[in-house]
Amino acid sequence: MFRSARWRSEKNRSSVVFKLQFHATKVPPSGDVALTISLVPADSGRPTSKSDVAAVSDGDCLWENPVYESVKFNRDPKSGKIHERIYHFVLGAGLSKSGVIGEASIDMSKYVEAEKVTTVSLPLKGSKSEAILNISIQRM
């Protein structure tokens, strides 16, 4: 029986759901009182998820509700290695590009086999301050 290449490649794909909790520190004081985080896969360039709005207090911003993101991974059939999946976390105050405070990037494939909650601190690129985005990553 003929099997298309699509069916063979399905064996090398997997989908993992991550629970992401965010906390930003050293956020520059500005007129913005509330911030959001958009999750943008590098390969698509479009946001797939967006956090709730969180208030800035004394340079800190804590999001109460986590974001659940389903990420699809491809595995190399010969080596078994998982291909990288870069995600950009864009911290912003509004919908326009002028409201972007900064962005941080991370390779989600490093956390596919993690069994415990991992906390990562990433400096925000494009930020005029020393803002840091702390992300707790948990595989569900």
TrEMBL record:
InterPro entries hit by this protein: NT-C2
Superkingdom, taxonomy of origin: Eukaryota
Pfam family, one: NT-C2
Residues annotated as domain C2 NT-type: 6-140
Protein's recorded name: C2 NT-type domain-containing protein
Organism: Genlisea aurea
